[in-house]
Amino acid sequence: MNGKFIKSSIASLLFVPLLVGVTQAQDETYKLDEVYKISPTGKIELQTDDANVRITGTDRKDVHVYIYRKVIVRGIKFGNKREFEVEVMERGGDLVIREKEWGGYSVMSMGYQREEYEVTIEAPASVSLEIKGDDDDYVVRNVDGSIVMNIDDGDIDISNCDGNHFEFDLDDGDLEMDGGGGFLYVRSDDGDVAISDAKFNEISANLDDGDILIETTLENNGDYTFRVDDGSIDLRVLGGGGEFEIRHDDARVISSDDFTLIEKDDNETILKLSNGNARVRMRADDSRVRLSRL
């Protein structure tokens, strides 16, 4: 048999499987617009990727969920089509919203892909939130329950949320918040935190390569802990006072005239602010600390 024919036949057989799953790219649209039950003190659990999310507390007694996702693709793809849907479950008075994807294109030979993805939720103002996201941006308004968020590569904007428990775990994202009270936990890597007009009685904040600005009252017997590496701490006291113990390495400490210096050396600065007995502890490495009373 001719050697060239054999090689050509083998090459053809090898090439045929590669054609399986080759598709001319088409737009893909997913839409959900439904109403679900929830307890007045229930929790919304939300998990999404790469979405613009807006959550608003209202006087309604149920939850309206609107999701719109459109993937615009141009070109040719090899492999299996990626399937997408959002699973919504009513569970023990809570509501669980979780996206599901399976399959996927192994290769895009040419072209581009763009995604429009919006999640809008209207819920009773008294509910709590537990959110996990990757590459999402969030706007939260008028939610008075607890808010717990674990976000990778996304920004958070919160206002008019009058709950007493807030937890934020952020990587490569910024947090802006107006209001809030009770307990605050923040861990941020490569992001900035700005919180105004707050009334926290306990704060635990840990930032690496980021700046934190907090305006809050200091409650009597309150406990406030800050640690910043390669960034800055700007604490603006709206009311109350206490003792400020600042440990530092290659850092600069600046305070307004309202603060009385108790002790200072190369590695520690202790200050006192009248009208309260809160305890404020700070650790600043390669950072700047600024304290003021508003």
Low-confidence stretches: 4-21
Backbone structural class: mainly beta
Mean pLDDT: 89
> What proportion of the residues is helical, as a percent range?
under 10%
Number of helices: 1
* Share in β-strands: over 45%
Radius of gyration: 26 Å
Tell me about the largest β-sheet: 25 strands, mixed
Please give the number of β-strands.
25
Separation of the first and last Cα atoms:
93 Å
In N-to-C order, the SSE pattern is HEEEEEEEEEEEEEEEEEEEEEEEEE
Outline, from the CA principal axes? elongated
Could you give a quick summary of the protein structure above?
The protein is mainly beta.
Descriptive overview:
By secondary structure, the chain is mostly beta strands. Helix content is 6%, strand content 67%. The chain has a 25-stranded mixed beta sheet that branches. About 6% of the residues have low confidence.
Please specify the SSE layout and strand pairing.
Blueprint: H1 3-19, E1 23-24, E2 28-36, E3 43-49, E4 52-58, E5 63-79, E6 83-91, E7 94-102, E8 105-124, E9 128-134, E10 137-141, E11 147-152, E12 156-159, E13 165-171, E14 175-178, E15 181-189, E16 193-208, E17 211-217, E18 223-229, E19 232-239, E20 242-249, E21 252-255, E22 259-264, E23 268-273, E24 278-285, E25 288-293
Parallel strand pairs: 3-7, 3-9, 4-8, 4-10, 9-11, 10-12, 11-13, 12-14, 13-15, 14-16, 15-16, 16-17, 16-18, 17-19, 18-24, 19-25, 20-24, 21-25
Antiparallel strand pairs: 1-5, 2-5, 5-8, 6-7, 20-23, 22-23
Keywords:
294 residues; mainly beta; 25-stranded mixed sheet; 25 strands; 6% helix; elongated
